[in-house]
UniProtKB/TrEMBL annotation:
This is LpxI C-terminal domain-containing protein. It comes from the Bacteria. Transmembrane segments: none annotated. Residues 202-242 are annotated as: Disordered. Residues 4-132 form the LpxI N-terminal domain. Residues 137-304 form the LpxI C-terminal domain. InterPro entries: LpxI, LpxI_C, LpxI_C_sf, LpxI_N.
């Protein structure tokens, strides 16, 4: 009989997968990766069988998998890779996988982990397997549309750039403006890259940024109505520019690290003063797609799925 292990990092994706597995009568055990904060609903559900596992204690994890007679596994949720540079103490199994990896890039480490599970006859499922309804259709999905030639050029430029950095397994996100690269995601993650880009672009002239994307110039001055709106978090009041592009790798392994966005991505973009988000319709996981687009509209952002 098949028995699934849901390896759970942070966020809502493990919760969605657990609910879908339960609906499909798939027996599963939740393996909470302790370096990530477990979704509150999952943490509070005492009916679930759970294991606490660490990135560093793979020997214990493998022992649990054997004891639970796991035959399949799925890996979902965010884990801050910086933790590998901090307080993770590795046991002998973790050291073996770490030493076997040619480098410490995400794909390299994952494939060593996948090989270890395969030696135990455990099949890792594609992340999409239990995430029906977590994708957006292709198109411009928000009320606000990209209209200026400059913005359309930035969308193309940023999209191709994010694909290229993905092919090197550096990151999934590039932030661009006027065909300049403001930020490229590395170990810090998408939100931090967006914030860094916002800090750079907001040092320039809001009027010039506005004009560059073909919109009427309206600089934001201290004490202006725009500042008042911004201080109260009202969408659409401040000048916005810059494009965030997040794409899968050209050789994306469907079992691991599919690009994912949520309302927090939008909130981070809004706070940074950025304008548009470009993702891939078939490869980007979106938590609660309808809520996601509604929030983008409320914030006056553009969302494009290609």
């Amino acid at each position: 009989m098949k028995h699934l292990a849901i390896f759970a990092g942070a966020g809502e994706l493990p919760l969605i997968a657990a609910k879908n597995a339960a609906k499909a009568d798939i027996p599963f055990t939740l393996y909470h990766i302790t370096e990530a904060e477990l979704n509150a609903e999952l943490a509070a559900d005492i009916s679930l069988k759970k294991r606490e596992v660490s990135l560093g204690t793979l020997g214990q994890t493998f022992a649990y998998l054997k004891k639970d007679k796991i035959t399949e596994a799925i890996l979902l949720g965010k884990i801050e890779k910086q933790r590998l540079l901090q307080d993770v103490v590795r046991d002998a199994e973790a050291d073996r996988i770490y030493a076997a990896a040619a480098d410490r890039r995400d794909d390299t480490l994952f494939h060593e982990f996948a090989r270890a599970l395969a030696s135990m006859q455990i099949h890792i499922l594609p992340q999409k397997s239990l995430l029906d309804g977590c994708f957006l259709p292709a198109g411009v999905l928000t009320q606000k549309k990209p209209e200026s030639a400059s913005l359309l050029e930035d969308i193309e430029f940023g999209y191709e750039l994010s694909r290229k950095i993905g092919s090197l397994d550096i990151g999934q996100t590039a932030v661009v403006f006027q065909k300049m690269v403001l930020a490229v995601e590395a170990i810090e993650g998408t939100d931090a890259a967006i914030r860094r880009a916002g800090e750079i672009i907001n040092k320039g002239s809001p009027t010039e940024a506005h004009r560059a994307h073909g919109e009427p110039g309206a600089s934001v001055r201290s004490g202006s109505p725009q500042d008042a709106h911004r201080a109260h978090g009202e969408p659409g009041a401040s000048v916005r520019s810059g494009v965030v592009c997040k794409t899968a790798k050209t050789s994306q392994d469907p079992r691991f690290d599919l690009p994912a966005v949520g309302t927090r991505t939008l909130e981070t973009m809004h706070a940074a003063g950025l304008q548009a988000l470009v993702i891939e319709a078939a490869h980007t996981l979106v938590v609660n797609p309808q809520e996601f687009i509604a929030r983008a509209d409320a914030l006056g952002l553009i969302v494009i799925a290609r």
